[in-house]
Design goal:
- It holds the Pfam family S_100.
- InterPro entries: EF-hand-dom_pair (IPR011992), EF_hand_dom (IPR002048), S-100_dom (IPR034325), S100_Ca-bd_sub (IPR013787).
- GO terms for molecular function: calcium ion binding; calcium-dependent protein binding; transition metal ion binding.
- By secondary structure, the chain is mainly alpha-helical.
- It is about 65% helix and about 0% strand.
- The protein has a single domain, classed as EF-hand (Recoverin, domain 1, Orthogonal Bundle), CATH 1.10.238.
- It contains 6 helices and no strands.
Length: about 100
């Protein structure tokens, strides 16, 4: 459906597809599933963040035993939060692409 979509549209569509592949029948993820997804699909952004208090807070919240599941909206907020604190973001900012 997004063959003609912009790069940004394709990026968000990919995030939605990955989320849906991991999500349960209610379109939600357990905290453990969320952590697993992030570790396998988002590790470049998470790499080197272990000493940052906000990162520790986010990951610790995923380790808590809870019946609360994560919906797509919360998942996207989590991705954006991890991206904003990532050292990789600065590297990306330093790279300019031309079209």
């Amino acid at each position: 459906a997004l063959r003609q979509g912009s790069d940004l549209e394709k990026a968000f569509a990919t995030a939605a597809l990955v989320y849906n592949n991991y999500a349960d029948s209610e379109s939600k993820l357990s905290k453990a599933e969320t952590k697993s997804l992030l570790q396998s699909q988002f590790w470049h952004f998470m790499q080197g963040q272990e000493n940052k208090p906000k990162y520790q807070e986010i990951i610790s919240s995923l380790d808590e035993e809870s019946e609360n599941k994560i919906n797509f909206e919360d998942f996207m907020i989590l991705l954006v939060s991890l991206t904003l604190m990532s050292d990789l973001l600065q590297e990306i900012k330093n790279v300019k692409t031309t079209k």
